[in-house]
Design brief:
CATH class of one domain: Alpha Beta
Radius of gyration: 29 Å
Largest sheet: 4 strands, antiparallel
CATH architecture of one domain: Roll
Strand content: 15-25%
Order of helices and strands: HHEEEE
Strand order of the largest sheet: 1-2-3-4
Number of strands: 4
Helix content: 10-25%
Shape: elongated
Distance between the termini: 100 Å
């Protein structure tokens, strides 16, 4: 019995090869190495070196970006729920409700951050927030818990905090 192929693509054409693999993650896709020139991740003697570790961002930088995302409306307030303690969440919700950093045009960015360490495990920080030619001020306090995680315990925007109804 003879098999008959009826599809044109299945016919063998002399002198043609199947398409080659173009996946760079697989062998055969990398150019040949020059043994005289060390590559990234190798020491001049041929041994492997550890990649330079990236410095971890400071908690003040992380929290300034997180608070800015909430106050500019890019993130909801409940996104900060596990990163706040005490009245800080209520203050943040009150501030975000008014949308103080929502702008038309230029997105607000953190221009500068400064901080003061009143005691180990506590940081009082300020951030200058810029959106176009407008400059605003944001202050916040971070405290490190027993689990060594930083949490925001206070947040203010553009001046002193408004009195809380529980402050009698």
């Amino acid at each position: 019995m003879n098999k008959v192929m009826t599809r044109a693509a299945a016919q063998h054409r002399p002198g043609t090869r199947p398409p080659s693999r173009r996946d760079p993650r697989r062998p055969g896709g990398a150019p040949p190495r020059d043994p005289a020139r060390p590559t990234a991740g190798t020491a001049p003697g041929g041994g492997r070196t550890a990649a330079a570790p990236r410095p971890l961002p400071r908690p003040t930088d992380l929290f300034a970006d997180r608070l800015l995302a909430v106050l500019s409306g890019r993130r909801p307030v409940h996104w900060m729920l596990r990163h706040t303690v005490g009245r800080a969440y209520d203050d943040l919700a009150r501030l975000a409700e008014a949308g103080p950093l929502r702008t038309r045009g230029a997105h607000p960015v953190v221009r500068d951050i400064g901080y003061y360490v009143p005691r180990p495990g506590a940081v009082e920080a300020f951030a200058r927030i810029g959106a176009g030619d407008q400059l605003r001020a944001m202050a916040f306090r971070l405290e490190q818990g027993p689990d060594l995680r930083w949490r925001c315990t206070a947040v203010e925007l553009d001046g002193p905090r408004t009195p809380h109804p529980d402050d009698d």
